[in-house]
Specification:
mainly alpha
Length: about 180
């Protein structure tokens, strides 16, 4: 559904009647200047969010499947789920894809913030702090995954925490800014 919603949003913006001549310079399709970097920033964060959502769903399915196996539930009852190995691999791939996208989006956001300091409160802005905390949780999760070789239930729980922080970050982004605009 996400590609359909994004496509319709882009089409609605493309066919929107501009109210003034300055609206043309801030078009979503402008491939120059600040508009391009803002759009790239948003796209990278949306793609990272999709990766986190996939990892969250895989983690929930992992925990449910592990509980079923531990309690020796009768196979065939309830929803069929993938094996634990496949769910863990799905989680790993989604996090491995989301972290670089989140990092690139964060770097572009920092560059945009440094360029337009008037709109933000600086580094203590709750939007910046929540995004940095989310990035740090991802970095710690990847370190624990590959440095300490943590896997299974603990990684699934950390992924759920990362998803909760993502939701908190999204709420912070839209509730503390006038009109929901970053």
């Amino acid at each position: 559904m996400l590609p359909v919603v994004l496509g319709l949003t882009i089409l609605a913006h493309a066919f929107d009647q501009p109210s003034s001549s300055s609206a043309d310079s801030q078009s979503i399709f402008a491939l120059h200047g600040e508009g391009f970097w803002r759009m790239l920033h948003v796209i990278l964060f949306v793609l990272a969010s999709v990766g986190v959502c996939i990892a969250f769903i895989a983690s929930l399915m992992y925990l449910v499947q592990a509980r079923r196996l531990r309690s020796k539930a009768i196979p065939g009852q309830g929803l069929r789920l993938f094996s634990l190995e496949r769910l863990e691999a799905m989680n790993r791939r989604a996090i491995n894809a989301a972290f670089p996208l989140l990092s690139a989006g964060l770097l572009i956001g920092i560059a945009l913030m440094l360029e337009d300091r008037d709109r933000l409160e600086g580094w203590t802005d709750p939007r910046i702090l929540s995004t940095l905390v989310l990035w740090l949780v991802f970095a710690v999760m990847l370190y624990l995954r590959y440095g300490v070789h943590l896997h299974g239930r603990r990684v699934a729980l950390l992924t759920i925490v990362a998803f909760a922080l993502l939701l908190l970050t999204l709420v912070t982004q839209h509730s503390l800014t006038p009109g929901g605009r970053p």
